[in-house]
Amino acid sequence: MTLSTIEAQELAPEHTAVARLHLSMAETDRIPRALEQTMLAIQQAGQQPAGMPFVRTIAFDGGSMDIEVGWPVAEPFEASGEVTASMLPGGPAAVASYLGPYDQIAPAYEAIQAWCAEHGREIAGPPWESYFTDPHDEPDPAKWRTDLHFPLKP
């Protein structure tokens, strides 16, 4: 695992267009299709993404999870079919960049949680991953960059 230095940052809130999914860990192959559907809905609304695609884990019980899959947008998004408006929260967050395959990201989550405990910071909501590398463009999973964001209590 390659993880950058974990830093506390102040994030601006972001409007998003998302598809909400309930899936098991074995169904994560549904995420790319949800990203495609969300991009199509954004374009049909006359908008463009204002940032990198992301997955935000709303609830996780070990066997299944509720997630938001989508893109930041500059303006509030009007719901279109299964794609709805949401927000990524602003405020303090622990942020780090992970390089590696998606299925080996768990130690990065553990490292950020340990950093929060060591620095007396409390996680304030669901974390999200922003994807900077398209696996179709970069076949080497060791080079895939994912930024992790953990909202923190002030």
Mean pLDDT: 95
- Annotation field: number of helices: 2
Q: Assign the CATH class.
A: Alpha Beta
Helix/strand order: EEEHEEEEHEE
Low-confidence residue ranges:
none
The rounded Rg comes to: 15 Å
Explain this structure.
- The longest helix is centred in the N-terminal third of the chain and has 14 residues, at 31-44.
- The model has no long low-confidence stretch (mean pLDDT 95).
- Strand 4 (54-60) and strand 5 (64-73) form a beta hairpin.
- Strands 1, 2, 3, 4, 5, 6, 7, 8 and 9 form a 9-stranded antiparallel β-sheet that branches.
- By secondary structure, the chain is of the alpha+beta class.
- The relative contact order is 0.25.
- It has helices spanning 31-44, 106-118, and strands at residues 2-3, 7-11, 14-24, 54-60, 64-73, 83-88, 91-99, 128-131, 145-151.
- It is globular.
- It has one domain: Regulatory factor, effector binding domain (Multidrug-efflux Transporter 1 Regulator Bmrr, Chain A), CATH 3.20.80.10.
- The two termini are 29 Å apart.
Name its key features.
globular, 154 residues, 18% helix, Multidrug-efflux Transporter 1 Regulator Bmrr, Chain A, 2 helices, alpha+beta, nine-stranded antiparallel beta sheet
